[in-house]
Amino acid sequence: MSTPASAQDRIAAWKQKWNESTFLKAQGLEVEETGVGRVTVRLPQVQPSQLGGGGTDNELNSGVLNGGVISYMFDGALGWAIMSALMDLPEAKEINPSDLRQFTINLDITFLDAAIGSRFEAHGRIVRVSKSTAFAEGDFVDANGKVCATAKGIWRIFWPRNKLAAAS
């Protein structure tokens, strides 16, 4: 695979890879970059398997989205916002987006209200990005814009070794 030339091309290549993930497809998630370092992950239609959980009585609260789904959407939204910002850095110009790796060090979620409904969005945005660590935050909203949860997290960045040495 050749290295995409512009930041937008690199971001588009990463988005294609992200959207091809089997797990993401199985969850019915969609991603939209709303600006460099800003991303929305959508769940356009909640599935019955995504409802309820350990803290809910399924008969009484069957319309409550499972916290694990919310957590996964936050992990994707914040991580994708970080990747979007990284792809815009000058150091990323010479690399293939598939060669840049990241993983979640910490994801802190505060659940503010029950997530009840059929459509949700997780918004992720960059707080700070360096060559080795990134910080992001976000909010999780229902179809009416009610904030059901907030998150903040820290990610570790792994640049391709030969490219990082050249960029330093």
Automatic annotation (TrEMBL):
<dbReference type="InterPro" id="IPR029069">
    <property type="entry name" value="HotDog_dom_sf"/>
</dbReference>
<dbReference type="Pfam" id="PF03061">
    <property type="entry name" value="4HBT"/>
</dbReference>
<feature type="domain" description="Thioesterase">
    <location>
        <begin position="63"/>
        <end position="149"/>
    </location>
</feature>
<protein>
    <submittedName>
        <fullName>Uncharacterized protein (TIGR00369 family)</fullName>
    </submittedName>
</protein>
<dbReference type="GO" id="GO:0016790">
    <property type="term" value="F:thiolester hydrolase activity"/>
</dbReference>
<dbReference type="InterPro" id="IPR006683">
    <property type="entry name" value="Thioestr_dom"/>
</dbReference>
